[in-house]
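TICKET #2291
ISSUE: user wants both folds in one file
ATTACHMENT 1:
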Amino acid sequence: MDPVRNPYAPGAGQRPPELAGRDRELQQFEIVLERVARGRPERSMVLTGLRGVGKTVLLNTFKSMAMQRLWGTGKIEARPDQSIRRPVAAALHMAIRELAPRHRAPERIEEFLGVLKAFAMRDPAAAKGTSHWSPGIDVPAARGRADSGDLEIDLTELFVDAAGVATDLGVGIALFIDEMQDVQAPDVSALCAACHELSQNGGPLIVVGAGLPHLPSVLSASKSYSERLFRYARIDRLDRDAADLALIAPAAREDVEFTPDALDALYEAADGYPYFVQAYGKVAWDLAPRSPITAEDIKVSAPEAEEELAVGFFGSRYERATPAERDYMHAMAQLGDDPVPTAEVAEALGRKPSSLSPARDSLIKKGLIYSAERGVIGFTVPHFGRFLRAQPV
């Protein structure tokens, strides 16, 4: 088998050669785009799921769909130590730059850019008398609009003004936020308030977020109406047909086939998780001597794929944990792969639950575990428990 022709692409946010099993989500977003284009009220959208299920891939695909409709688009990746004020400003600046050449009133664009500049520069966290904002906006900063210093007020005014520019052109603006669970709590509240205002006045600006499974609870803790504000889509593992298609279709384009037994073995190994499907498929292709790829080829290649996952996908995360955090995760792993009660973890370690709160909270901040519901925690990475059970305690 020629490794140069290998079609499989395991990577962070890297689109697989065949985006299988996501037709429902793509259709949902197509409906959102069409409704907004027709001036119909529509909710913003939130994708949730474990790591490796393809949330970022979908987010990027949605962005491409919006761009094909000539929308203005911008994307940010949230960080827990950073306000969203300037990242959002930069993303909306990019969106408006996409729309500006088609707008017949340059003064309207300049007016908005002045508001955008004022919004970005009004950062309470910045040192007094300094500004690191340098987006190449030549117009002077506006005064009295989106510059109060209160992010909820400023973000709402900025979104409304941006939506107004899009309305002039009969299109929309889409702001994409990856790792949305890492948006700081006050900023989440501001974001929800701005989306709420847009949903009430029908402005053609939508926010599309992606994050870990506990993102809905993060949003609801911020604003009680958030469960009605967003359209939620849970992204999970692929079913058998979709997982097979993700392997068969790219191979067929290279005149390569899999035997039914090989597909059985690959599904058992990858368990339907898109990242694992690509990882096992890539190594199987490289090590198989010829087409069709057989179950024996999978048996030979599986250990190498598992070693790569152990080092890159699992190991890199494990290395970020302190000894106390590793003990906590090992105790979770011994209780199984599904989310487990924190009380059972404490019991397994022979400790009081309150004494383990620092380790648990730190693991949540590092994105290694998440709070599935009150008093229950789970791994953010599929099969992480299985990996931990193979590691020395």
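ATTACHMENT 2:
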Amino acid sequence: MANYDYDLFVIGAGSGGVRAARTAAATGVKVAVAEDRYLGGTCVNVGCVPKKLYSYAAHFHDAFEDSSGFGWTIPQAPSFDWATLRDNKIEEIKRLNGIYNRLLDGAGVTLINGRAKVVDAHAVEVNGERITAEKILVAVGGWPWMPQFEGSEYTVNSNQVFDLDDFPKRFLVLGGGYIAVEFASIFNGLGADTHLVYRGALFLRGFDHEVREFTRDEMAKKGVNLHFEANIERIRKVEGGLEVTLTNGEQLEVDAVLAATGRRPHLEGLGLDSLGVELNTDGTLKVNERYESSVPSILALGDVTGGPELTPVALAEAMHLVQHHYGDKTPGPLDYQNIATAVFCHPNIGTVGLSEEEARERFGAVRIYSADFRPMKHTLSGSDERCLMKLVVDDASDRVVGAHMVGDEAGETIQGIAIAVRAQLTKTDFDATVGIHPTAAEEFVTMRSLTRR
């Protein structure tokens, strides 16, 4: 047998890489991890964790306004301090970085600080040192992709936006994905005059169309200025801010521009091209169900492989990968169907399963049950915010194949509903479930009237 420095060498200490390293080490194999930036990857440092903290902060704006209807009087107008939020976030991320460090150390994994480069099928180079391994796992995640136009150097990306020196009182987001929609809601909630510019007719492509339309209307009611079928033509620095000219001729003056235009695999300089590792058409790494690339000793998981760009997916892939390569039994392929997700815009979106459009294409005959209502909370708050709940049912089997919600804590609600959808429960099962009253979530088990076929 060949003599290697390590059995498994992991490049990237994000959620997937750390989980794979720890679980592999628990089987007795010798593991090392190389990370050149921050422990915990995108999610912990510049993704879901800080984003959710900022979303919580932005929700206080609505809470202060809503409280008066419940008898609360705030002696003076609330004021927001960006530096306090930013710096408290930084301290929390440092705490989480420390936890990841201790997890690796406790698992007996060697942590190497540096950017690893693959030099052959069984070797990497880190900080000028050649290290060999029987298998190499690429788990480097994604990196923001930035558009190029006149003045694009004045934009910030989704990594940088958390740590702006000053709070932008006038804020513009370019993009139509979940990151763009979330940050538009966050900065609007924190008090910025916020614009969202998207080249398409409607944001959140791939989500249920009714959900997209409902979210558009609710965000507009909250004050986000939406500019569809437009793009940025140029940005010019002017006294007191940035002058943004759109392709439709409109000009806006803002203090900061976030280019939330997508993320791409962070593969540059990794050396995989010299080994001829095969890529998918979108530039992601092509892997089989064992997470092996076209070079069998080079493995990959997470965002670099082109699957759902979600932390829980990377964690699940890590567990499967370790079972395939170091476990005592071979698992079946990971099931990517019915993965629930949330968008932390205001109001939140939670969704699992098929959209109405996807279900019609797959099954033909479907039944749609939906409820659009004013939540009980807002009968006293005075807010005109509404909630949408929707079930998509395959008519032939009566199985609920999609569940969607736009409203407060939609992600929390859909997490439970996702179990039912994955278990292939029927609309009859939903109807037979006794609801919890009074909650918004009970609508999912009390929707009896057919909305449409």
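RESOLUTION: both attachments delivered.
EXTRA DETAIL ON ATTACHMENT 2: The mean pLDDT is 97.
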